[in-house]
Every structure is written in C-alpha cells, then in structure tokens.
Amino acid sequence: MSQSKTQDLLAFVRQLPVGMAYAPIYAKDQAIQSGKISKGKTPLERSHHQVMAPSDVALQIERKPNVFQAVGVFTGGRSMGLVILDVDRNLSRLKKKWGESLEGAPVITSTKANAAKYLFRVPEALWGSVKGFGLSDTGAGYEVLWGRQGVIYGAYPGSSDGKAPEGHYGFEGDLEAIPDAPEWLLAEMRDHAGKEIQDGGFIKNRKALDFSDRDPAEVAEIIQSALKVIPGQGAGSRDHWVKVGMAIHSELPTDLGLTLWSAWSAEDPEFSQEWSEGNPCDEVWKSFRKGPVSLGTLFWMADQQMPGRMWLAEDLRKVVMQLEADAGQEHLPRFSEIILATREALQLENPAEQKYELHKIAYKAKMRDAFELEKMYVDQVQYESQSETMTVKELLQQDFERSYLIPDLLPNPAVVLIYGAGGDGKSMAAWTLAKHIATGAPFVIRGQHVPVQQGPVLLLNGDQPLVQMQEQLLEIEMPADAPVTLRTDWTLQSYARFQKLMDRVRPKLVVIDSLIGCSGGRAFDENKSDFATPLYWLTRNNGVLFPATTILIIHHANKTGGFRGTSAIRDAVDETWSLRRPSDKQLEQTGANARIITIEKSRSGRGGTSLMLRQEADLSFTLADWTPEVDPTETTPSGVIDRVLQRLRVVYPAGKTRDELNSDPICGGSVAGIRKALQRLEKRGLIHVMEERKADGKRGSASKVYQAVLSPSRGEVGNTCPTKEKPCDTNESKVGQQPEIQEVVPLKSNVGQPDPEKQACPTLKPRDTKGSGQWDTSGTYPHAREERSQAELDQLMQEAARMWD
C-alpha cells in the first residue's frame, strides 16, 4: 500500500468512535500466524478475544503498513448490537423494495457493482432472540453479519469470482449515529434464530431426545445459547475451534454434544471446503479427554461477546448455578480466600495473565465476571482503610495537610479531571502543567509569579502511540533530564500495579491520558455509574494506600462540547476543568491561538476561576492563571479575599499584620472578613506567616505578620524595563496602580523561566485592543517594585485609597 493510502487509512481509524470492537485486517496474499494466506478480509488473531480500540488498530497499521491494509469491526454484543447487512448482489432490487429503510445508515462500497454494506443496531433487548445468516441461506443476494467481523475501510481484495477488481472500500455516514435495524431485517434475524431451534429438534423437543433425566437437556440448551453468540474466527483459528469442542465435551460427551459442536462449526463460511469430504469434527471429537478446558471456558467466551450472561434466557441463569455445582465444581471458597487470591492476582505485571487469573477466581466464586470481583475488592480495600466513627472535635484535631503544587491551582492530594473537544489541546495543557512541576518553573497566579513544588511526574497513557507522546514532549520543550516517568497501555483497574508504581516513583503529579483510553474494554459503559469506580478508588485512597499526589485525568467532551458520560464521573473527582476555544468576545483579549480552561467544580472552593493556554510566536506553549487579581465588578463580601491578597503583594517583601489590614481602606470588609480571608489565602498557599511581632510599648500576645508567596524573581524575570508608550487603558483603572508604574515585560516562552543568557529585555508595546500584554495578567495587575522604599509604597497605596473612595 502506498504511503498516502496508509495515511488515509490511519486518519480514518483514528476518528472511529470508541466503544466498538475493531480489528486490523491482513492484506491480501499476506501470510498469517496459522501459516495460511490471507484473502484480504482476515482480522488479526487476537482481535477475536480482545476488544481493540481505534488506537490499538492504528498502532498495528503504523508498525506494519504492508501487513495490515484495512480495518474491520465485529458485530453483535461486542460492538453494542452492531449488525451489518452485506448486499453481495441485487442492490438495486433491494433498494426498490426497502430503500426508505436504508436511508441514514452508514454505507460501505467497493469496486463490486450492485453491492454495498449497511450498518444498523439491534436493540439490546433483542440480542438474545436474533441470529445472522449467510448468502446461501436465503438466495436473496445478501447476508447478515451478527457476531462476525466485517471490513469497513481500506484495501478491497476484489471479488472471489474475479469479476470485481481490487480496489478500495469507500465509507459514507456517521458511525456515532447508526440507526436501529429496520423491522423487516429484525424479522429475518428472528426467523433464522427460530429455525435453528425448529430444525435442530434436539433442544425444545425433549421427548424426541428420549433422555431419562432432564439435566442433559438443560445442559444442551445452555450450551446452544452460548454457541449462538460465539462466532467462528475463520482462517487460523483451529485452537479456538478445538477449545469450543473440548468445553462442550467436558459436560456433554455424547452424540448430542458432537451435534452441537458440528452445527456451530458448519456456520463458519471460511471452512466450507472442510465439509466437502464429511464432518471434520468426528475424528477430533473422539480424541477429546477430560482436561483443564471446561464448560466455564465456553461461558467465558460467550460473556466476552455479550457481558452479564445476557446470552442466557432468564430462567436458565438460575439453572447455570445449579449446573455448575452438579458438574463437580468446588464449593464456594471463603471470602478471605477470594480477597487474598485477588490481591495476589492484581500484583501480576502481565495484564493478560492478570486478567486470566481474575476470571478464574471469579468463576470459582460463582461471580458474574472479573469486573464484579474487582468491585468487591475495591470495597474491601476501602473498608480496611476507613477509620472508626469520631466526634467533630476529634476530626478537627486530626493533623491533615493539603498543600498546593501550584498555589491556588493544583491542590495536593487531589484528583482533577480536565475535559474538552478532541484536538483542542487537553494533553498539551496537562503536559505544560507537568513541565512546571518537573522543572519547578514559577507559575503566574493572579498576575504574579508564584513558586512551584518541583518533583517527579508520572504519565500513564492508554490511547496514544509513542510517536505522538514524543511529539508532545518536543512541542512543550520538556528537558530530556526532567524527572518524568512514562507508562503506556495503562488500565485504570490496575490498582495493585498503581500502588507499586506510586511507591517506586513517588510523583508529585500523575497525568492519566485519557479516561476512556485507560478504561480498556469497559469504555462503552461510560454512561453507567460503575464506570466511575476507579475514580472513586483514586480519590478515596490518595494519600492512604499510596503516597499523596495530584492526579490529573484527561477526558473527552461530548459532541456539543459538554461533559461526557455519567455524572458519577464528575462526582468522583475533586475538581473538573473545562477546556474550550475562546468565545468571540474573549478572542479580542486572547487571540485565536489560545484556549480557556474554566474550573467548574472544586472542593477547594475555586470554582469559576480560569486558566489560559496559548501557543506563542516561537511555537512554544504557555499556561497561566487568567483570573483578575481584583475584580472591579465583585461587590460581594467575598471580594475582600482578592483585595487582601493584592495588598500583601504590593508591599512584598514586607508583610502586614491583621490589625494593619483591618485599618487599610483598600482592603475594606469587616474584621471577621479580613480574618477569614487570611485563613483561606494561607490554606491555598498564596500567603504565609513570615514572623510574629509585638507593637512597640504594647502588651499582649504577638501578632502574625502575613507575607505574599511569590517566586524569588517577584514575577518580573530579570530586570524590569519601562515602556516608552502609554500603557493600556485598563492599567489606569486598577486598584493600587498608577499609570506611571512600569510595565513588566511578559515571558517570551515558558512562564516563569527566564533566559539566563539575556540580561536586558526589550520594551513592550501595548496591544491595539484593550486588555493585556502577552498574558492578560501581566498588563492588568499591579506589580510591586523591590527598589521602592516602604514610605514610597505607603504613599502609592494612600493615593490608591483616595481613588477607591
């Protein structure tokens, strides 16, 4: 395949919606693992039992573009009820009869004339009562793929009769808006499901079976229910075929079991030639002996296609529990044994081995699946870590510590979720924050640079190839020696592995990219509250089961840009941040190369504040707080917090006592309001107590002297440079700032990182529009001058107070 066609295929794959089971397709005449030669429609072997997301398929195509040249999708319960109507001939006749019902469905075309594929969905309530069928079953010129795989884009190998040449599959439509299957199609699928029972005769007509005991008939009915949803895997799938036969033989080693296996085997069209000389199952069936493969294996296979044992009729689900007991299964193990075994399984490094062991434990405990087992384990860990009941006094006496990696921005410990539309820069915003933590570069908060807690960063990625991660690191200019640890192919359910990794790395910041990508095969459950279970686990156990840290999780927005998935996701985290493109009104201040991050929910009381991510002229990225130091429109009592912070910043490096702030006309507010403002600012890391002193000649306890927390450079990065031009209009209206106060030169690239080679800085010309310099905060907020005396500062503040009055 040419490079352009490969890039076209990759572009198509990457925009596929998450939640369905996809597969990379072997190119025509390509040797596959079984030693056979692909006809151009054979999927990668492991896609049959592993749900592959679009990123997984893209990775395989990127690595082997000559081996994989198309993408397919599995139908049935694995892909939320997807069904493919594959019209091989007589398309015009079908359109004439059912044309209206085909409108709106995604359609796939090829070089084959009068042929196409249409994609529909079967409602979940009908999954157990429908069945697909092949071309030879009706003679109508079409087949219905249900449980099987169909190619949807990429190289077309040409028709088997040679009439249609090789070419390319074309695709039209929206995979996120697949309509429900029309009634005529559902009727045909129900009809074929009914024929299977009627023609077989050996399931419902128990008298014809002449069984003296009812149990074998029940076993046969349950086995056939499982076989209805387990698809054949075509070329190279002998192991899968044999394993199904062995599972049936383990509980039904009779001619009836052979008949069930044979009927299922004959449905795989890729093995039609194997039946030309008789039943290929006969001899293999005779070789089966009791072994590790049991009926539980068959149940597990069916659960992969339709989770929750939905492939069984309701009355048969109860029978399964009794059947497993009658089949000589072990008695239910003790709860302590299950917890111990689960904990040991979660310690395994190999995710495939871990998944197998968890399924085995769940099966022994007669639980629905491994997910139920993990939920139980999380509840147990939470129970073990919780404390006894306590009084309010006891709680207040607890020595809890919530610090800030970045004052008033990144609390620690905390779990923060940032969401936004694809391509808007969520990962870049997260990585820019990570760079500040990894390098310790100061950060702009309320117009001033504040110190950042430097420390290790851990990135856990689930849906990006390494090449894309490398590009992001280069774009933000992350130093090669920065203390950043990366781990790919991560799943949020890896609780024990997460604890081990946290103990080893002990990061200040953890970035999880992304919530959907790290949820594995459960991504399609994002609208169910159980989907948020790992987030609750991270929030509740942060600082308990693993070292306290700040966890930043990247999430995707829905089609309209709003929050995607169940509300339990939002409830489970400490903060949610929304990343969006600037509105038309904001564009005047930000420019088109910026993104606004709004803190929507915050358990620290910071909701409504904002950040701005911007790509600069040198293609570097800067991120800073975008909240006014003093909001002139804020008339509520809470505005005293901003005024107190501003007053302490202006007098920096000096400090002020609470009494001095009470008498300061700029601060305003009540005595109690000033006291609470100081408490909250200190808790957010924006101020601290620098000393305690007594007033001259006065008795009593010493007063605390509060000082603003600012970076050593005072937010000015090197020498300050006076501007020759008149400052922006907004500078003249800010509290405590005179037009004569010199403007600070904004950073050229990363906020808070001066260029050590440059001692001087150029003057800054004001923008044409009202607002700010390079960062809005740098041209709007007042900056103290270290070279001014205390008397000069007090005079400036008195003049500002008169302006305020």
Topology:
Blueprint: H1 3-14, E1 22-26, H2 54-63, E2 68-74, E3 82-87, H3 91-102, E4 107-109, E5 116-121, E6 142-145, E7 149-156, E8 167-172, H4 183-200, H5 206-209, H6 215-229, H7 238-251, H8 255-265, H9 281-287, H10 295-305, H11 314-326, H12 335-346, H13 351-364, H14 370-385, H15 392-396, E9 403-406, E10 410-412, E11 414-420, H16 426-439, E12 443-445, E13 448-450, E14 457-461, H17 466-475, E15 484-487, H18 495-505, E16 509-513, H19 533-541, E17 550-556, H20 567-572, E18 575-580, H21 584-590, E19 594-602, E20 610-615, E21 621-625, H22 639-650, E22 656-657, H23 658-662, H24 671-683, E23 687-693, E24 703-708, H25 729-732, H26 776-780, H27 790-804
Parallel strand pairs: 11-17, 11-18, 14-15, 14-16, 16-17
Antiparallel strand pairs: 1-2, 2-7, 3-5, 3-6, 4-5, 4-8, 7-8, 9-10, 12-13, 18-19, 19-20, 20-21, 22-24, 23-24
Helix pairs in contact: 1-2, 6-8, 6-10, 6-11, 7-8, 7-10, 12-13, 13-14, 14-19, 22-24
Can you tell me about this structure?
By secondary structure, this protein is an alpha+beta fold. The protein has six domains: 3-189, no CATH class; 201-326, no CATH class; 335-385; 404-625, P-loop containing nucleotide triphosphate hydrolases (Rossmann fold), CATH 3.40.50; 633-710, Winged helix-like DNA-binding domain superfamily/Winged helix DNA-binding domain (Arc Repressor Mutant, subunit A, Orthogonal Bundle); 714-805, no CATH class. Helix content is 35%, strand content 16%. Strands 15-14-16-17-11-18-19-20-21 form a nine-stranded mixed β-sheet, with helices on both faces. Strands 1-2-7-8-4-5-3-6 form an eight-stranded antiparallel β-sheet, with helices on one face. A three-stranded antiparallel β-sheet has the order 22-24-23. Strand 20 (610-615) and strand 21 form a beta hairpin. The longest helix has 18 residues, at 183-200. The chain is elongated. The N and C termini lie far apart (75 Å). Mean pLDDT is 77; it is low at 197-214, 714-788 and 800-805.
